[in-house]
Each structure stands twice: as structure tokens, then as C-alpha cells.
């Protein structure tokens, strides 16, 4: 073999310095850790290891703004819902109030109509009574004048009017009318303690089973017209125009009638000369 021939070396190849340093650092760290653990176990009174505090990430400004916006929006929605609920309650209250007002207005209108109707009826009756009073006043004035010509004419008319005594239905009408003499005149009265003129005539005819209209205007057209010179007991006498008479009475025979004249005289029996009627009708 040549002295210069290459002989393979049996030594291990050298490790690089950097690798040795890493291994040495690792080994040192392990030994240091073991040493500290041993020290800690050997010295129970040693101070505890300091705790590590983790820091939470801080919200950035954009996220904070989004949260604030969401809260504001939720508050606005809540207020809007409250306002809407209040408006709904007000609308319901308004509808209820309107319905109540409409009902009350209807009731008031009905009451007003009833009152007007009653007032009209009362006015008609009052007008009838006033016309009767004027007629009575005129008759009284004529009687007080002492006119012989008038008295003579009336006596002749009364003589021609005399008829036979009442019988049957006529007697029932006459007897009832005479039985009411002395009772009070009350406007609208239909008995039994007081009457107005048409109320008396209607009640008298009811005794004969005959139903007459309530008002004097209608009673003056209830039967057949007859002459004042041919009257019979039970005929209806009227004052004023036929169909619009303002006063009525019952002819009882002998040139006399029974009528509810006015509040001053009440129900009286008078001769035709007391207040000569305009006309007469016969129902029987």
C-alpha cells in the first residue's frame, strides 16, 4: 500500500456548531425546569408562581358604533310601538264615544218629537177652549143687551126645535150627558170626573155603544147634517165650520143642550139661546 493512499477514518463526523448549540439549549432548559420543580417541592413555603393574566381583545370603534346603533334602533321601535298602541286606543275610544253620542242624539230627537207632538195637541185643545170661551162671552153679551127681537127669534126657534122625549140609544146619551152637569171642564179631559167638550160627547155616545172620533172637528162630520129647526135628542151640535168646529155639545131636547163649556162654567145645561150653534149632525 502506498504511503499516500487514502485510509478511511473510523471517527464519527463532527456535528455542526449550530446543532450542538440547539441541543445544549434544550438540555439546559430541561435541567432548569427540573431544578425549579425540585426546589418548589423541596421548599413548600416558597412563594407561589405568579398567575398569568390574559388580556381580552378590545372592541374596535366600528363594533361599538354598531352596538350603539342597534340599541338606539330598538329604543325607537319601542317608542313607535307605544305610540301606535296609544293611537289605536284613542281611535277605539273615539268610535265608542261617537256611537254613544249618536244614540243620545237619536233619543233626544225622539223626545223632542214627542214633546212637539204633545205641545201641538195641547195647543189645539187650548185653541178649542179659547174659541168656546169667546163664543160664551159673545152669547153673554148678547143676553145682557136685553134685545127683545133676539129673544123673540130665539124663543121661536126653540119652540120649533122641541121634539118628543128621548128613547132608546138617544135616552142613554141624554141621561149620561145630564148626569155630568156640575163637573169640571178640563182641557183634554175624558172623564169620569172632568171633561172637555169633545170628551163629553164621545163619552155620552159610548153609552149607546157608538164610538166617535176624539176631536170636535171630526165629530162635526160624524153623521148626517140636520136643520137646527128639526133637532132630536142625542144630536150633536157644533160651533164653527163643519169639519173644523171648535166646540161641540149634546142636544137633550126641549130647546136645550148639555156641554162642557169652559173652565169657568164647567159642564152645564143651557138653552140654545145661551149660545146658538152653527149646525148639527145626527148619528143615531
Structural descriptors:
two-stranded parallel sheet, 284 residues, 6 helices, 8 strands, six-stranded antiparallel beta sheet, 12% strand
Lay out the secondary structure.
Elements: H1 17-42, H2 61-144, H3 148-161, H4 168-179, E1 184-185, E2 194-195, H5 197-206, H6 216-219, E3 224-226, E4 236-239, E5 247-253, E6 256-262, E7 266-271, E8 279-282
Parallel strand pairs: 1-2
Antiparallel strand pairs: 3-8, 4-5, 4-8, 5-6, 6-7
Compute the number of helices: 6
Q: Indicate the radius of gyration in whole angstroms.
A: 63 Å
The largest β sheet comes out as: 6 strands, antiparallel
Termini gap: 188 Å
Mean pLDDT: 76
Q: Helical residue percent?
A: 40-55%
Structural class: alpha+beta
What is the number of strand segments? 8
| Shape annotation | rod-shaped
Strand share of the residues?
Answer: 5-15%
Please mark out the parts with pLDDT under 50 across 5 or more consecutive residues, or reply none: 140-163
Arrangement of strands in the largest sheet: 3-8-4-5-6-7
What is the CATH third-level topology name of one domain? endopeptidase fold (from Nostoc punctiforme)
Please name the CATH architecture of one domain. Alpha-Beta Complex
- By CATH reckoning, the class of one domain would read Alpha Beta
CATH superfamily of one domain, please?
endopeptidase domain like (from Nostoc punctiforme)
Order of helices and strands: HHHHEEHHEEEEEE
Descriptive overview:
This protein is an alpha+beta fold and 284 residues long. The chain has a domain at 136-282: endopeptidase fold (from Nostoc punctiforme), CATH 3.90.1720. Helices cover 53% and strands 12% of the residues. It contains six helices and eight strands. The protein has helices at 17-42, 61-144, 148-161, 168-179, 197-206, 216-219; strands at 184-185, 194-195, 224-226, 236-239, 247-253, 256-262, 266-271, 279-282. α4 packs across α5.
Amino acid at each position: 500500500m502506498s504511503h499516500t493512499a487514502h485510509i478511511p477514518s473510523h471517527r464519527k463526523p463532527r456535528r455542526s456548531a449550530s446543532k450542538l448549540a440547539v441541543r445544549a439549549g434544550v438540555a439546559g432548559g430541561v435541567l432548569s425546569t427540573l431544578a425549579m420543580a425540585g426546589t418548589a417541592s423541596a421548599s413548600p413555603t416558597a412563594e407561589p408562581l405568579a398567575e398569568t393574566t390574559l388580556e381580552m381583545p378590545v372592541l374596535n370603534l366600528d363594533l361599538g358604533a354598531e352596538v350603539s346603533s342597534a340599541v338606539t334602533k330598538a329604543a325607537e321601535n319601542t317608542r313607535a310601538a307605544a305610540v301606535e298602541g296609544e293611537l289605536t286606543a284613542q281611535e277605539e275610544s273615539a268610535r265608542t264615544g261617537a256611537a254613544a253620542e249618536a244614540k243620545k242624539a237619536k233619543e233626544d230627537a225622539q223626545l223632542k218629537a214627542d214633546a212637539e207632538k204633545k205641545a201641538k195637541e195641547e195647543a189645539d185643545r187650548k185653541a178649542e177652549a179659547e174659541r168656546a170661551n169667546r163664543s160664551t162671552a159673545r152669547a153673554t153679551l148678547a143676553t145682557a143687551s136685553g134685545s127683545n127681537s133676539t129673544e123673540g127669534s130665539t124663543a121661536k126657534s126653540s119652540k120649533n126645535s122641541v121634539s118628543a122625549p128621548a128613547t132608546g140609544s138617544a135616552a142613554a146619551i141624554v141621561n149620561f150627558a145630564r148626569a155630568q152637569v156640575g163637573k169640571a171642564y178640563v182641557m183634554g179631559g175624558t172623564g169620569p170626573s172632568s171633561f172637555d167638550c169633545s170628551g163629553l160627547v164621545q163619552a155620552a155616545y159610548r153609552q149607546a155603544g157608538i164610538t166617535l172620533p176624539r176631536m170636535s172637528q171630526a165629530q162635526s162630520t160624524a153623521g148626517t147634517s140636520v136643520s137646527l129647526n128639526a133637532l132630536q135628542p142625542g144630536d150633536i151640535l157644533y160651533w164653527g165650520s163643519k169639519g173644523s168646529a171648535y166646540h161641540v155639545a149634546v142636544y137633550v131636547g126641549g130647546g136645550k143642550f148639555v156641554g162642557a163649556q169652559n173652565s169657568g162654567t164647567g159642564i152645564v145645561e143651557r138653552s140654545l139661546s145661551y149660545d146658538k150653534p152653527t149646525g148639527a149632525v145626527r148619528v143615531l
